[in-house]
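During the reporting period the student researcher (J.K.) took over the structure-prediction task from the postdoctoral fellow and processed the backlog of single-chain submissions. One of the processed entries is reproduced below for the supervisory committee.
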Amino acid sequence: METSSIIALIFAAIILTSTLVIVRRRRVKEQQALLDKVAAEKDFQQIDLIRVQNPTEQDNEAYALIERERQKVWKSLSLQTSIAPGLIWKMCYDLVARISAVYSPESDNPIFQVSLSDLLGLNDRVIRRIQDYLEQFPLNAIKDMKVQDILTYKDWFDKVSQNKAVQFAQQHKYLYTAWQYGWMVYNSINPWYWGRKVIFEAGREGSFRYLLSVILTIVGEEAVMVYSKRRIRQKAVAIEKGIAVEMINMAVADQTVSAQEYEVLLSFILNSNKFDDMVKVTLLKALLRKQTMKSPLELDSLDEKERKRFLMEVERVAKADKLGVLKKLDALKTLEDALSLTSGYRTQLELAPHEEVRSMDVMQQNRKREEAIFRLMIQAGSVDGTFPQSLREYIIERAENYPLPFDADEQDAILQEADAPTPIDTLTKEITSQPDKERALAETLDALLWYLPFTRKDEEFFVQLVAVLHLRQVSDSLLQKRMERLLPQNKLIGKPAFPILKLLCRQIQQEEQILALVETGSSYQFQTNEERPKKKDAAFWLCVTTERALLLTAAMLNGVMYTHQVDLKPPFTLKIERGRLHDTYALRDAVQEFRLSSALFHSDDLRAALEMLVKRQKQHELAESA
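J.K. obtained the following structure tokens:
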């Protein structure tokens, strides 16, 4: 028994010794890593404190205060320093309060000697600048850490450090060492375990020191700018912002901002070197929401030169707007009263009688609608990838001769539809009445039919426009009338049914001329692919052009339109077989023969059309032989 007990004790001692060695090595390793991290943190440098040019005595006092606070954080921050958000806020608040007292020493509440807008602006600028630093090293390593984790580790550190048992053990080194290396309770009684948690799990101590230094520096710089009145009292910036606000108010006076107004406003706001990005974003958001804004400027504080420029810039917006003249008049009157000036543009408008001004509004609305139609025509004319020069010249001529003519820049903008088309539903918002919709569809259709053939893409564009304009009931009749206008006027040109006419416009090329279009007495039988197929005969139409002969037919079966065409190309041979009631014409090309009869007994139309075809062929042969 004694031998076995001794062996068990030796074995237990070996296990305990091994455990203590492993723990010791682990602690030494972590301590070395900690030393390496602390050494790396020595390379961190505080950001520069940016000072104003030509600082006053008060400025120097404020900057000295900021520097003291920065150095206090930089040199004394340790694991005993709390990094709770509330305490960081208090640190910043105290700094701002002390800086404000430098500039308003006689005030009981110096921190409140600026407006609410100034304080909100201070807050926005601080947040924006700190966010920029969070994207850079070393703060980008800790920016995603949960604050709760950091505070939990710190709380455990405080609790364990202040525990009476731990403090007693620390006073007796041998006891503390034995206790510290006790395996089961190592983490819970060792305050440096939680201290290392703050460093290793939450990020470097230097990173937090750097973060607090950045926050204090930025808060201090911005507080100096606000309480020294430099930022909020820069008159040039205030005037520029006031002009931008009134320009936006003028643009949204009629709740409709035209492309020309947007161009004027964007140019003014984005090109201004007096606005920071936040101001530009705020102004553009107000413009997009079409919201009026309160001017940040007292207009009666401006001198005459500044007031004239103010009015001139706002007038630019009023002149750019081709609509809402009456509402622009009211807005200009209000601005005139505030500036104690007279608007030359408003005077011009008021010289016209009220009825004429209202009439001008109507004319501008009509002009807007006409521009939409021009743009639709250009899109239609360029559906197949090429924009006909003759159509381009036609649209330019109409734009120049409109009662309120479109200038060269406006024409160029409209012609851009060929390369960068505006959505159809956007353009058609300007076309509201039924007659205007039908006119827009008819003129767009003219552009689609400017050059034949009438392709599938052309038809798809037409169908889309019909759907947007809600003109399905009149679209087919309108398309038929427009296509009939393409046919020559002579006795050999008949008027086929709409399916034949549409099929013809799909086949005819731009370089071809139609010489004859007549119905024949010959027919083609259509048949459906069904178990019990349906059949239907339909007469052929003969179309003779300067290049060839076409046989066209169409029939409706089961609600579906079926079409068939035969293309005959020279050389032709024509044989006429006389009959009692009608004649038969045997027409042969190089591959096939068709026998055609007159639709009405001995009608001369078909014969004349075929003889014209043969005559054109002989003329062509003579020209080639010569």
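The committee noted the following: The chain is about 60% helix and 10% strand.
J.K. will present the remaining backlog at the next meeting.
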